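User: Predict structure, ligand NDP.
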Amino acid sequence: MNQKVVLITGCSSGIGLALAARIAKDEKKRFMVYATMRNLSKAGALIEEAGRSLGRTLEIKQLDVCDEDSIKACVDSLPERRVDILINNAGMGLIGPIECQSIDEMKTVMDTNFFGLVRLLKEILPDMKRRKKGHIVVISSVMGIQGILFNDVYAASKFAVEGFCESLAVQAMRFNLNISLIEPGPVITEFERKVYDEGLKTDLSKADKVTADMFSNIYLKNYKQIFETLGQTAEDVAEHTHKIITMENPPFRHQTNTLYTPMTTLKYADPNGDLPIDTFYKMVFEHDKVFNASLNFIKLLRWRSRKSFTLEKDKSN
Ligand SMILES: NC(=O)C1=CN([C@@H]2O[C@H](COP(=O)(O)OP(=O)(O)OC[C@H]3O[C@@H](n4cnc5c(N)ncnc54)[C@H](OP(=O)(O)O)[C@@H]3O)[C@@H](O)[C@H]2O)C=CC1
Ligand SMILES: CC1=C(/C=C/C(C)=C/C=C/C(C)=C/C=O)C(C)(C)CCC1
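Assistant: Predicted complex:
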C-alpha cells in the first residue's frame, strides 16, 4: 500500500497528540505517522491514545524544533528521509505587558514558533522540491491574522509564520507543493493552563497601574470565560486538519472555529484596519456587560446542545 509519510512536531500533548492519534487511526490506513516530541519521557499519553496503531501506523521519535541536530537526526532516521506531509505544530504562548517580559523570554517564543518552522523546512523542503511532492501544514492561529490584547509577542510569532508561508507559497506551487495554515481560535489544551498560570505569576511591578489593572482585571478575568465559551477541543482541530490533508486541492488558510469567525471577519472587512481594533476596544471597555452577556448566552446554547446530544446518545444505546 502506498502510505503517505506524515511527520508531526509537539506530540506530547494537546493538538499534536490528538493529530497524531487521529491521522494514525485513518479509516483507510492512508498514513504512516511519525509523531515527534522533544522529551520522550512525556510519551505516555500518546502511547495510551494511539492504542493499536502504535508500531503499525504510528511511531514516536525525538525532535526538538529549537535544535537543528535533533531535526536532522530525526529526518535521517526515516526511510529514504521521505516526508510527504509535514505538520508543524510545536509551539508556545506568552501573555502579559511587554514591560514585564524579558527579551530572552520573547526570543524563546520566536525561536520555537517561528524559527522552529524555518529549521524544519530547511531540512525537509529541498527533498520535497526534488520529489515535486509534498504538503506543508502549519498550526498557526487566529492570532496569525489578528492581534489580541496582551498577546503582542505570541501574535508577532504567528504573523511571522504566516508572512513566511505566504511568501513561500508561490515558489512551492512551482514545485507542485501545497502549504496550508490551520488557524484555530482558543483550544482547551495544556497551552491554555500554562499560559494562564504564567500570566497569574507575572511580576506586574514594572507596569504602570492602568496597564497592570487592564491585564489582571480585564484580560485574565475574561480569559477562562473565553476558553469555556468559545474553546474547541484538540480532537476537533485534529478532525479539521485530517480533512485538509486528505483534500485534492487543500486551501492555503483554514479557520477551525466558526464561533470565532465574527472576530476575524472584522479584519477582512476594513482595509484601514481600524474596525477590529475599535471593536475589541468597545467590547472590553464600553460594552463589557453586553460582551459578557453574549458569552454567557453562547455558553448556555453550547451546554444545551451538548445535553441534548448526550440524551440522544443515551436513548440510542
Ligand atoms: N491552545 C490554543 O488555544 C491554541 C493553540 N494554537 C497552536 O497550536 C499548537 C499546539 O499547541 P497546543 O496543543 O494548544 O499546546 P500544548 O502546550 O498542549 O502543546 C504544545 C506542544 O509543543 C511542544 N513544544 C514546545 N516547544 C517545543 C520544542 N522546542 N520542540 C518540540 N516541541 C516543542 C510541547 O512539548 P513539551 O510538552 O515538551 O513542552 C507540546 O508537545 C501551537 O503551535 C499553538 O501556538 C493555535 C491556536 C490556539
Ligand atoms: C475575543 C476577545 C478577547 C480574548 C480572546 C482570546 C483570549 C483569544 C485567544 C486565542 C488563542 C489562545 C489563540 C491561540 O493561538 C478579549 C481580548 C478578552 C476581549 C475582546 C474579545
